[in-house]
Amino acid sequence: VDADAIERAKRAAGDNAAGLVTDGMTLGLGTGSTARWFIAAVARLVADGMRLRGVATSLASEAQAREAGIPIIDLPAGGLDLAVDGADCVDPDLRLVKGAGGAMLREKIVAAAAERFVVVVDESKLRDRLGAVLPVEVLPFGSAATLAAIGRVCGVEPRWRPGTQDGRYVTDNGNLVADVPMEGGIGDPEALAEQLDAVPGVLGHGLFLGMSDLVLAARADGGVTELRPRGRS
Amino acid sequence: VDADAIERAKRAAGDNAAGLVTDGMTLGLGTGSTARWFIAAVARLVADGMRLRGVATSLASEAQAREAGIPIIDLPAGGLDLAVDGADCVDPDLRLVKGAGGAMLREKIVAAAAERFVVVVDESKLRDRLGAVLPVEVLPFGSAATLAAIGRVCGVEPRWRPGTQDGRYVTDNGNLVADVPMEGGIGDPEALAEQLDAVPGVLGHGLFLGMSDLVLAARADGGVTELRPRGRS
Hints:
Two copies of one chain form a homodimer.
Chain A: H1 3-18, E1 26-29, H2 35-47, E2 53-56, H3 59-67, E3 80-85, E4 89-90, E5 96-97, H4 104-113, E6 114-122, E7 132-138, H5 143-154, E8 159-160, E9 162-165, E10 176-182, H6 189-197, E11 202-205, E12 207-208, E13 214-218, E14 224-227
Parallel strand pairs in A: 1-2, 1-3, 3-6, 6-13
Antiparallel strand pairs in A: 4-5, 5-12, 7-10, 7-11, 8-10, 13-14
Helix pairs in contact in A: 1-2
């Protein structure tokens, strides 16, 4: 795999998503290596005079957006016009696994608040079946018991994501991340999401189900494939 | 209603629950005016030489327990022997609404980790139908949009619990509390819990369903009624 080609593809997807932006929009700004290209493209639209405002899904995206001149606001009660974000894995039903960047909780809040949620990926993220490391955001209080409960629900052993606070990664929200190795496949994503949501101490997770309105998948040939949910135009 | 009689009833319930404690147990220590009496009774057992350890559900309960000489530990991965806590409302299926004290998220983690979860209340908390102010713990990020989503799910207008940080209450976990006025009754608690759990930005809520192993309800006459889930002995 050619790293330059992947980067070009990510840029193509981000630029393509920026084509959906119109004057006056309030935008959700995703986190990660593909979302960065969307933010860069939005910054050019602002520089060209478009009146846009952004809600950032991470401190990193907020810093990039502010630096590039995009006005940043808190998520309004009324929601957003458009949110654009990357994904770690996309299945044919446009269900997603997200959270390699650790921002999945804020990303899901922003995606849920958007009238239109658009996913930008390179085509290597498209799979026949959902399967990836599944990140779960966990309250520090009682985290050992919560980790054990996550393992029982998922049927595999989760691991704390390593980081700098006592060796563990800490999210922008001050919580821990359990990485669940589900690269082998997630049989029933809806059931798993419901069971994880019901575990006290689980604050969020990387399963984004029924949320994607459009997936823009950049191909190695430089083109972008548009994928829409079945049954929707 | 006689305030002294209610306090005596709360004490009777707390003392009664302490009768379930045996040497060597690791205990979940609840939060609130009835759980305080349980903690006081446990402290007497420790003073009498019983080897006990406690996991506190709030900073307030931790302070009370430490002051009284109960060793406090983090929630072990293997869980707890017994957790005892109060409730705001108990229905005939022993479903609960909790969280008037704002500690419902930690309380639910502790209750879920306990082999046996015992609820201590005065009998005024027993109702034919679940109905009370339902507290929901909300991530500060995106909280305006999350509050709107909670209102759509619950069908009534939630309010931020007032407090001292910019006028709003902040939990021990650093989050906000939306109080949902459901005193009129909660028609389908399981469905509501599932819908609330699925809202990104909702980190926890006061519905405790299928968790109670025993309810100790102190009567005005000084006695304690024991209630067990239907179909269990």
